[in-house]
Amino acid sequence: MTDTDRSLPVPTLPEAALAELDAAVVVLEGTSLPVRLAALVGGSVEALKRRLPDVAQRGLDEAVRRALEAAMQAALRSAPGRTGPLPNDWLHRGLIAASGVAGGAFGLPGTLLELPVSTTLLLRQVAAVAAEQRRTCPTPRCRPNA
Q1: 46 touches 95 (CB < 8 A)
Q2: Which residues contact 38 (CB under 8 A, 6 or more apart)?
Q3: What DSSP assignment string belongs to 51-78?
Q4: Are 72 and 122 in contact (CB under 8 A)?
């Protein structure tokens, strides 16, 4: 018997499992309600921004860029590679959740005050993951984009 004569058995799944897999595909490939709402709000914000004069649009873009740069600098100053008594993942999740609750409790003014805080916390988490990746994989060969 040659290798071409042999074939691997084809696994079969019960109908209930196949239906469950089909439902999972629909959920994973579909667009969730929060994503649709974010796109709707983002689209309306972009439409409002396009109605502004060019100089105002450029000023707004510059202000957002400076705010993001300041948030990133603050996140990096907090030594994201350092570990403390609590696991970093849990600490960050707790702080971000508390920030979101505080912003939501005070409506739009609270959200406007909370947004820079949560952005900085999210950027710090990204930096912590990057620091962990560097620590566990110190050579460029094992980093995907090195």
Answers
A1: no
A2: none
A3: TS-HHHHHHHHHHHHHHHHHHHHHHHHT
A4: no
What pLDDT is recorded for position 74? Answer: 86
Count, in order, helices (H) and strands (E) of the chain: 5, 0
* Predicted TM-score (pTM) of this structure: 0.53
Report residue 19 as tokens.
């239906």
Mean of pLDDT values over 99-128:
81
Report residue 138's pLDDT band, with 50, 70 and 90 as the boundaries: low
Burial status of residue 129 (CB atoms within 10 A of its CB: 0-12, 13-18, 19 or more): middle
* pLDDT score of 27: 80
Tokens of 26: 């629909």
Is residue 55 predicted with pLDDT exceeding 90? yes
Within 10 A of 123 (CB to CB), how many other CB atoms are there? 19
User: Tokens at residue 1, please?
Assistant: 């018997």
Other C-beta atoms closer than 10 Å to the C-beta of 18 total 11
Region of 79 (left: φ > 0; alpha: ψ -120 to 50; beta: rest) is left
- Amino acid found at 91: L
Which residue's structure tokens are 């897999």? Answer: 21
